[in-house]
Design a protein that fits this description.
Layout lengths: L1 E9 L3 H19 L2 E6 L4 H7 L5 H8 L3 E6 L14 H11 L4 E7 L12 H4 L3 E7 L9 E4 L6 E4 L5 H16 L4 E6 L5 H17 L4 E6 H10 L6 E4 L1 H12 L9 E5 L5 E5 L16 H13 L4 H16 L16 H13 L1
Parallel strand pairs: 1-2, 1-3, 3-12, 5-10, 8-9, 8-10
Antiparallel strand pairs: 4-5, 4-11, 6-7, 11-12
Helix pairs in contact: 1-10, 1-12, 6-7, 8-9, 10-11, 11-12
The protein binds 1,4-dihydronicotinamide adenine dinucleotide and magnesium ion (MG).
Subcellular location: Cytoplasm
Enzyme class: oxidoreductase
Function: Catalyzes the oxidation of 3-carboxy-2-hydroxy-4-methylpentanoate (3-isopropylmalate) to 3-carboxy-4-methyl-2-oxopentanoate. The product decarboxylates to 4-methyl-2 oxopentanoate.
Length: 357
């Protein structure tokens, strides 16, 4: 297979970690006989510094022409000036919008070798492996807002809007993902109170009955889900939900494994290139020190292979290599719990070596 991949290293530790993920993809290319071509483009603070624009037109064009995009992170104190015309994050929001990326995928997987990093007791967190799909371009965050009146009568509103089409497409993606995993899908809503949730629930149930009768399907209310995530996280397989509920639940869930530097994510649209990135930020406090954990970005590269290049075997090879280097005792400082730690490069080397074997 041939594939062209755009790298958006961005700011802070972004360049250090995307470099390691690129090396891992090259190793996969060598082992499985694929030809990956890479080009780096500007996004975020560095793009502001060099062009005045957090998402230059050349970056958008390169992304559109690519098969997939791998992003590091954007932002940092240098660009935090509240009076600045534009911010690094604007580049990230714009690229998601330009590419119509309506689904955010966040796997919350506990690596057993890191079980003691979790804030939860071992017997509760053990076996946790959830894939969240959050709707990303609709719902209340994009609803019409207004402010009227003044003084104590001043009121503000923001509309939550979902269409059947929006619900169908994300539920289909989630159901397809479930078929490749544990074959179970949970839809989270607030249908006891909210009208858009009732449309969501009705639509999801119809799609599942008509198109995915073989996938085990259930629904949970969002407030109950917030409790279940703490109480019995290992009971869930794939979870699909709207934009705001997904924002909150995925942040809650990302704390469960206790290792931010290990968690990847993907943003997908219909047909075009997907965007893959770690869930953590640019970590300016450790940038340039060579100690950042590259595994979240390396695992994002595995998602890229799985979801954009249909290369499940290759994706699984990366995930196995990561599990193997952890089993061998390698830790970057963030997951070392005070024990011995290795550099960003050494961690990348170890994963590359595993893949070559
Ligand atoms: P952060 O995720 O960058 O860092 C939080 C803490 O985790 C820091 O102590 C950091 O050193 C550590 N950390 C994060 N990733 C790590 C890794 N791979 N290896 C080792 N340690 C790691 O979040 P923070 O500090 O709130 O934000 C820093 C900057 O990143 C801000 O400018 C923020 O706006 C931006 N940001 C960007 C995101 C993105 O590009 N998608 C997402 C979140 C924040
Ligand atoms: Mg959030």
């Amino acid at each position: 297979m041939k594939a062209s991949i755009v790298l958006l290293p961005g700011d802070g530790i972004g360049p250090e970690i995307t470099q390691q993920a690129k090396r891992v993809l090259e190793a996969i290319g060598d082992r499985f006989g694929h030809e990956f071509t890479f080009q780096s483009q500007l996004i975020g603070g560095i793009a502001i510094d060099e062009t005045g624009d957090p998402l230059p037109e050349a970056t958008i064009q390169a992304c559109r022409d690519s098969d997939a995009i791998l992003l590091g992170a954007v932002g940092g104190p240098k660009w935090d000036d509240p009076s600045a015309k534009t911010r690094p994050e604007a580049g990230l929001l714009k690229i998601r919008k330009e590419l119509g990326l309506f689904a955010n995928l966040r796997p919350i997987k506990l690596f057993n070798q890191l079980i003691d990093a979790s804030p939860l007791r071992r017997e509760i967190i053990e076996g946790t492996d959830i894939l969240f799909l959050r709707e990303l371009t609709g719902g209340i965050y994009f609803g019409e807002s207004s402010r009227t009146g003044s003084g104590p009568d001043e009121t503000a509103s923001q509309a939550m809007v979902y269409s059947v089409r929006e619900v169908e497409r994300i539920v289909r993606l989630a159901a397809q993902a479930a078929k490749g995993r544990g074959n179970r899908l949970t839809s989270v809503d607030k249908a006891n109170v909210l009208e858009p949730s009732r449309l969501w629930r009705q639509t999801a149930a119809r799609v599942m009955a008509e198109e995915f009768p073989e996938v085990q399907y259930d629904v949970v209310l969002v407030d109950a889900m917030a409790m279940h995530l703490i109480n019995r996280p290992s009971d869930f397989d794939v979870v699909v939900t709207g934009n705001m509920f997904g924002d909150i639940l995925t942040d809650e869930a990302s704390m469960l494994p206790g290792s931010l530097g290990m968690l990847p994510s993907a943003s997908l649209g219909s047909g075009g290139p997907g965007l893959y990135e770690p869930i953590h930020g640019s970590a300016p406090d450790i940038a340039g020190k060579g100690i950042a954990n590259p595994l979240a970005t390396i695992l994002a590269a595995a998602m890229l292979l799985r979801h954009s290049l249909n290369a499940e075997t290759e994706a699984a090879a990366i995930e196995k290599a990561v599990a193997d280097v952890l089993a061998a005792g390698l830790r970057t400082a963030d997951i070392a719990r005070g024990g011995p730690s290795v550099s960003t490069d050494a961690m990348g080397d170890a994963v590359v070596d595993q893949i070559k074997q």
